[in-house]
Amino acid sequence: MEKPYYSLDKYFKGIYGEKCYKIAIDAGLSCPNRDGTIGYGGCTFCSAGGSGDFAVSRAVGSIQDQIDAGLALFGDKKTGNRFVAYYQAYTNTYGKPSLLEQIYREGLSHPQIMGISIATRPDCLSFEILDLLDRLRREYAPKFIWIELGLQTCHERTARLINRGYPLSVFEQAMRALREQSIPTIVHVILGLPGETPEDMYATVSYLNAFQPFGIKLQLLHILKGTGLALDYEQHSPDLHIMELQEYIHVLIHCLELLDPGIIIHRLTGDGPKDLLLAPLWSLNKRKVLNTLHQTLKDQKTYQGRCYHYAGSIDSL
Questions:
Q1: Which of 102, 193, 107 is nearest to 150 (CA)?
Q2: Which of 151, 200, 214, 283 is deepest in the core (most CB within 10 A)?
């Protein structure tokens, strides 16, 4: 049955005619919000693994070694033969351009990789790095290069609470620069951040419509051991509200309704490592979360873009 939103699976099948898979890898980079360049400790929601807890271990070896190890995990389960190398852990444009070129080429040159997706921060996209991405995109065509930007929220007060480390204007500049280079961009948004109401979350989604990103990841807030948010959780911070399943489904559905129907949905809940997750524990049953979402969408006869209203483009911001 076709989903009432523009899923990544639908996009891949429309382009390649089959299901495609991501292999998360660790390029061994760091983050300016951890090493003191911008701050220490990282964003308050980010684990010690730099949000790359499901990536193939760096100890496996090179990028190509990690890809091969990731491919081996699929065994006979796969129903397609196309893969994306997902540079997931930490900030994957944070390094010397010569080093970044080397690690990107390792992924792009692997015969079973059809493209790479690079998770990063909008304050780590210099002109040199943008030029590198543009050059590699042309050289390796028809393979693709995607950038994934961690916005999380459009509200400056929340950004300060979670120690994001950059103002909204930096995100807007990065989005304009990536559009000029014709580099598809996926924006990460977290639903349930400290102090945010459902209306705040809806405002972030509506704000993003003006940028017309290639894709969006709507991520349920996870409280992970060893993070700044874990301290808030243990101290029962009044700003921190842990959503129940039905509450999250309600918020998520209206986010989808507000979203431009042309934006591809890359994620709808997210994964929290079982050994690190403090809350919400119901999120460990990802199948139940998605089944509940799909049944509720069906019951409500609603879909992505039902409440979408065009309100201008990036140029008007």
A1: 193
A2: 151
Confidence (pTM): 0.95
Q: What is the DSSP string of 150-209?
A: EEE-S-HHHHHHTT--S-HHHHHHHHHHHHHTT--EEEEEEET-TT--HHHHHHHHHHHH
Residue given tokens 């943008």 in the structure block: 130
* 310: exposed, middle or buried (Cβ count in 10 Å: 0-12, 13-18, 19+): exposed
Q: Which amino acid is at 125?
A: L
Please tell me the predicted confidence (pLDDT) of residue 53.
65
Instruction: Please report the DSSP string for 231-279 in residue order.
Output: HHHHTT-TT--PPPHHHHHHHHHHHHHHS-TTSEEEESS----TTTEEE
Residues in the chain, pLDDT under 50: none
Predicted local distance difference test score (pLDDT) of residue 63: 94
pLDDT at 49: 73
* Six-digit token string for 305: 């873009």
Rounded Cα distance between 225 and 210, Å, is 36
**Number of Cβ atoms within 10 Å of the Cβ of 71:** 18
The tokens for 2 are 């076709």
Q: Which residues of 171-198 are buried (b: 16+ CB within 10 A; e: fewer)?
A: bbebbebbbebebbbbbbbbbbbbbbee
